[in-house]
Amino acid sequence: MVKLRWIGALAMSLLVGCGSTPPAPEREAATPTASSDSPVIGPRWQLILLGSDERWQGAEPAWFEAESGRGGLRLSGSDGCRRLDGNLALDDGNRIAIEGLSAGRDCAGAPQAARVAEMMQAAHRYLIDHDRLVFFGRDSRVLGGFQRR
């Protein structure tokens, strides 16, 4: 009788073990790191599109450059009206984080200027194809496109 209970308990534990899958290991969120060998760093990137189809309309170009600086990567440029300065972080998974840019009001010569800093700070991933750089949001939506100059 004891042997029968033991076999039954063993069978039940095997069935329970077969029916469940081990939990997937939690994936650590990749922390963007300063990667000075990234193709984003160095060239001047001029904004050509806001979103996927709205062409830049400013009298002056909106652009940015990324360079290694004290304590990490720095971003500098223009929203077509005002100077942009901020911090930049990149990782090997094409993630990007831009912080510290201030979005101002629109300027007469750059009606889209206020949206430039907002678009850049919302960028989560990037893709480079030849001389084009595209920023994507967390939802994979195209935020803007740049061309290397």
From TrEMBL:
It comes from the Bacteria. Residues 41-142 form the DUF306 domain. InterPro entries: DUF306_Meta_HslJ (IPR005184), HslJ-like_sf (IPR038670). It comes from Halomonas salifodinae. This is META domain-containing protein.
